[in-house]
């Protein structure tokens, strides 16, 4: 039997649906999803099997014009993901079309991921009329020589099987890179921290989600089969701590409950989750915070 295996980087503007697509391909939620931009911060690998192929999807942070150190490190991580991959899939949003941001990514492709084979996935087709898609497909292919174009809805699942099949056929021949039953390549402590960050992002407004980070400090397996997980939420300002806790601690309590429920489902057992909020004004400039997130601090320079 000839097997195939390789890395497929999912790139695109923030909110394009990269993490949604990764989760659908893998069949489990390994990367967090919100309706807000810049949700994903680092490269997250999820593994899918299709016939004799093992496809390692690499979810990446959205590509945008970075301002802060964290933004720069995120964008650098995304480009590294594209440069290291066997195949690249650029996601755009059907209803937004060829935006300035998408054009900037196309311009970057030849420079930052030279020689990579790139397919286009026009996502969120559930939001547009079918007849609009032909013109957009043509426009995109005039802007860049994509190997293939797929019309998909990562959320509803349309077109996703065709994309997976094409990727499986197109990856190089070679032995599988992960054990057959592995679906993600990300430490559990980080997946757990991401789940809490997702709940925080969904609940908090404006800039706050971008001013915090979550780390799993301790993970204890208990005799009764449950897990005790201690996490720290770093915020940059005193005022943020108050907002995060909420009136009588309501906000943090709701976040904790939602994150715990998801963790329990993911792990298939009982979880005791303890969240602590720490004010740390300089966390956005601390190397250790970046390595905990899976980012390279120096990329932020
Ligand atoms: N209508 C529709 N919404 C979608 C589809 N795919 C993703 N979404 C929504 O788009 C939003 C962003 O999805 P994500 O998967 O977090 O996007 P992302 O590209 O990973 O975003 P960043 O991590 O911020 O770069 C979420 O609210 C998703 O539910 C789709 O096919 N159709
Ligand atoms: Mg994402």
Protein model, in words:
With 301 residues, the protein is an alpha/beta fold. 37% of the residues lie in helices and 23% in strands. The strands form 2 sheets. A 7-stranded mixed beta sheet has the order 6-5-4-1-3-2-7, sandwiched between helices. The protein starts with a strand and ends in an 8-residue tail after the last helix. The site of guanosine-5'-triphosphate has 25 residues, from helix 1.
Please outline the helices and strands.
Blueprint: E1 4-12, H1 18-26, E2 44-50, E3 53-59, H2 69-84, E4 87-93, H3 100-112, E5 117-123, H4 132-143, E6 149-151, H5 160-170, E7 184-185, H6 188-203, E8 212-221, E9 227-235, H7 238-245, H8 250-267, E10 271-279, H9 287-293
Parallel strand pairs: 1-3, 1-4, 4-5, 5-6, 9-10
Antiparallel strand pairs: 2-3, 2-7, 8-9
Helix pairs in contact: 6-8
Key structural traits:
single chain, 301 residues, alpha/beta, seven-stranded mixed sheet, three-stranded mixed sheet, 9 helices, binds guanosine-5'-triphosphate, binds magnesium ion
Morphology call = globular
**How do the SSEs run, as a string of H and E?**
EHEEHEHEHEHEHEEHHEH
The number of helices is 9
Describe the largest sheet.
Answer: 7 strands, mixed
Count all strands and give the number.
Answer: 10
Low-confidence parts: none
Structural class determined from secondary elements: alpha/beta
Fraction in helix: 25-40%
Give, in spatial order, the strands making up the sheet with the most strands. 6-5-4-1-3-2-7
Quick description:
By secondary structure, this protein is an alpha/beta fold. It is built from 9 helices and 10 strands.
């Amino acid at each position: 039997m000839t097997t195939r295996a390789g890395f497929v980087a999912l790139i695109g503007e923030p909110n394009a649906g990269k993490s949604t697509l990764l989760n659908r391909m893998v069949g489990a939620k390994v990367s967090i999803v919100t309706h807000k931009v810049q949700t994903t911060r680092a490269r997250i690998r999820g593994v899918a099997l299709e016939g004799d192929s093992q496809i390692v999807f690499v979810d990446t942070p959205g590509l945008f014009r970075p301002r802060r150190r964290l933004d720069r490190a995120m964008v650098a991580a995304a480009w590294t993901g594209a440069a290291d991959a066997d195949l690249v899939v650029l996601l755009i949003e059907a209803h937004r079309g060829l935006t300035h941001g998408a054009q900037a990514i196309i311009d970057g492709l030849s420079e930052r991921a030279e020689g990579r084979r790139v397919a286009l996935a026009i996502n969120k087709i559930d939001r547009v009329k079918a007849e609009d898609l032909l013109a957009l497909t043509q426009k995109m292919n005039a802007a860049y020589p994509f190997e293939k174009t797929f019309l998909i809805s990562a959320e509803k699942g349309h077109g996703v099987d065709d994309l997976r099949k094409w990727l499986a056929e197109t990856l190089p021949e070679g032995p599988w890179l992960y054990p057959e039953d592995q679906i993600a390549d990300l430490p559990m402590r980080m997946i757990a921290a991401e789940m809490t960050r997702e709940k925080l992002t969904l609940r908090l407004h404006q800039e706050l989600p971008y001013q915090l980070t979550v780390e799993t400090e301790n993970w204890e397996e208990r005799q009764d089969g449950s897990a005790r997980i201690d996490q720290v939420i770093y915020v940059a300002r005193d005022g943020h701590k108050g907002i995060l806790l909420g009136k009588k601690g309501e906000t943090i309590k709701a976040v904790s409950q939602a994150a715990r429920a998801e963790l329990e489902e993911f792990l298939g057992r009982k979880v005791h989750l303890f969240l602590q909020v720490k004010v740390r004004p300089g966390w956005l400039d601390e190397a250790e915070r970046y390595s905990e997130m899976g980012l390279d601090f120096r990329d932020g320079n």
